[in-house]
Write a structure and sequence with these properties.
The protein has 8 helices and 5 strands. By secondary structure, it is α/β, with parallel strands linked by helices. The mean pLDDT is 93.
Length: 222
């Protein structure tokens, strides 16, 4: 999470969307930059408004004066990124601290089916927050002012450059190993039904990050 006090600008970092690169490029000039732990770095909008905003704004929090932005990746692409990321060899050792996240020994189809399970029963690697979880308020609605598609990162960079009055150069970060992803049509149909609201939000986003078409869509997690 990055907060720029003078610009009244907030960047909420959704995992696996390239926002880590933005975080690295801009954190040194942010008024507040939360880097660790990951759960706080990737703070959801609802938690930001209720817990962090009153603190970083010095107790004078006025939501109408803040511009909050984030990024969303196409849901299947987002799931695939997590799957590939967790196939890395450092997780393969059963004694590894994060071995429970290892996906190198299962197919993408198996991985997607695990995502359909209730989170309390799902294996550790399938306990994800959701493709746009960081952008949601505590009721499950999109709360950010702008939600850019991952494929429109250039538009986000241009938007932030104008807001911050300076050019932005992005380093590469968190690049997952390339791996072919295959799943049955039955599994894909189940995923699209289970995460229907996530797909609906993504499909209705605009290149400029406008959320006008998605503010009435509620995401509910099982």
């Amino acid at each position: 999470m990055l907060y720029f006090h003078k610009k009244r600008l907030v960047l909420l970092c959704q995992p696996k969307t390239g926002t880590t690169a933005l975080h690295e490029a801009l954190s040194s000039e942010a008024s507040t930059a939360i880097r660790t732990p990951p759960a706080v770095k990737h703070l959801p909008y609802g938690a930001f408004v209720n817990k962090i905003a009153p603190w970083v704004t010095g107790g004078k929090f006025d939501r109408s004066k803040l511009t909050v932005v984030s990024v969303m990746r196409e849901p299947l692409d987002w799931f695939g990124s997590w799957y590939r990321y967790n196939t890395r060899e450092d997780l393969a050792d059963p004694s590894a601290k994060l071995h429970g996240k290892y996906t190198g020994n299962i197919s993408f189809d198996e991985y997607l089916n695990a995502l359909l399970m209730p989170k309390s029963q799902a294996p550790e690697y399938a306990r994800l927050g959701g493709p746009c979880s960081v952008a949601l308020d505590n009721s499950g609605y999109v709360g950010v002012n702008r939600l850019f598609r991952y494929t429109d990162l250039d538009a986000l960079v241009e938007f932030l450059s104008k807001k911050l009055d300076r050019p932005i150069q992005l380093p590469k970060a968190n690049v997952s190993e390339a791996r072919a992803l295959e799943a049955s049509q039955e599994t894909l149909s189940k995923i699209k039904q289970h995460f229907a609201t996530d797909f609906q939000i993504y499909d209705n986003l605009r290149p400029d990050g406008s959320v006008a078409n998605v503010t009435g869509i509620r995401v509910q997690r099982g």
